[in-house]
Amino acid sequence: MAVDIWGIGHCCQDNICVVEQYPPEDGSTHILEIDDSQGGGAAATAMVAASRLGARAGVIANLGDDPVGDRIFDGFLREGVQTELIRRIPGGRSSTSYVMVNPENGSRTKFPYRDQLPALRFTDEIRAALAGARILHLDGTQYENALRAARLAKELGITVSLDACSMQEDNEKNWELASLADILIANEKYPRRLTGKDSVEEALAVMAKLGPKVLASTAGSRGCWYVRDGCVKHLPAFEIRAVDTTGAGDTFHGAFLACWLTRPDPEYCLRFASAAAALKCLKRGGRAGIPDRAAAEAFLSRNGAVE
């Protein structure tokens, strides 16, 4: 099957631990609930969201040939995410992540294992797959993979989307990868750390000089800031009572891209992505609450969409 969006980045299996309260350092707390049934990883979950919202999505990755890798792989299959470019590494250890969720407000703290799998090999098969796609989505967690993939995508003339959530100590590397993005949507910390500016508005104004088609910064319940016609604007978040914010940003990215394929209007796509992320937060884990397209559009209709 042809793929519209390929994702390259972190793939893992999440272990969601709902705790009684956040413990202080050298303290303790009680675990109220554990859910280890859902996959995670920024680019991986974005592709699950894109698929559930109607896009043809796939993942390019290395996984170990271990039971954790089997669960991650099977999770993609269940969601209709294309897996033909996932390479299983003999003896490799697939990544897991532990997530502590505060039941009072749904906030989460993550403890992921570092991915020790080898770098991707950009074979002729991967090159051909990218050439037939419309978008390459990256989360930047494996910098060399992301940089090589972004350069290849630019060479092939396909749109590069970057979830700017992972940073290198060498800030020149961050600028280099960001400069290759056509759709650049960051978390709230990234723009200020990248530019050294005190506010997200100032930081986005500097980043706009890179010339992406879309530039935004998400801030959870405080909404998102984006650049339109040279001006930094704010889009409020939908008001919900969050159960778990795990995967909200990843869902935002996948939803934005799924919407962009059919309606490439930045403001509408940001609103659509915000709706999908809000709905995700109503259920535990990074993927269980990701809506389908009908549910996201119905939520927008009830809460007012940008026309």
Structural write-up:
- Keywords: Kinase, Transferase.
- Belongs to the carbohydrate kinase PfkB family.
- It holds the Pfam family PfkB.
- Residues 8-292 form the Carbohydrate kinase PfkB domain.
- GO terms for molecular function: kinase activity.
- The chain has 307 residues and is of the alpha/beta class.
- The chain has one domain: UDP-N-acetylmuramoyl-L-alanine:D-glutamate ligase.
- 35% of the residues lie in helices and 23% in strands.
- It contains ten helices and 15 strands.
- It has helices at residues 42-52, 67-78, 124-131, 143-156, 171-178, 190-195, 200-207, 248-262, 266-280, 293-303; strands at residues 5-8, 12-19, 31-35, 39-40, 57-59, 61-64, 86-89, 95-101, 108-112, 135-138, 159-164, 183-186, 214-218, 224-228, 231-235.
- It has an eight-stranded mixed beta sheet, sandwiched between helices. Strands 2, 3, 4, 8 and 9 form a five-stranded mixed beta sheet that branches. The chain has a two-stranded parallel sheet with strand order 6-7.
- A hairpin with a 2-residue loop joins strand 14 (224-228) and strand 15.
Main traits of this protein?
single chain, 307 residues, alpha/beta, UDP-N-acetylmuramoyl-L-alanine:D-glutamate ligase, eight-stranded mixed β-sheet, five-stranded mixed β-sheet, 10 helices, 15 strands, 23% strand, globular, Ribo/fructo_kinase
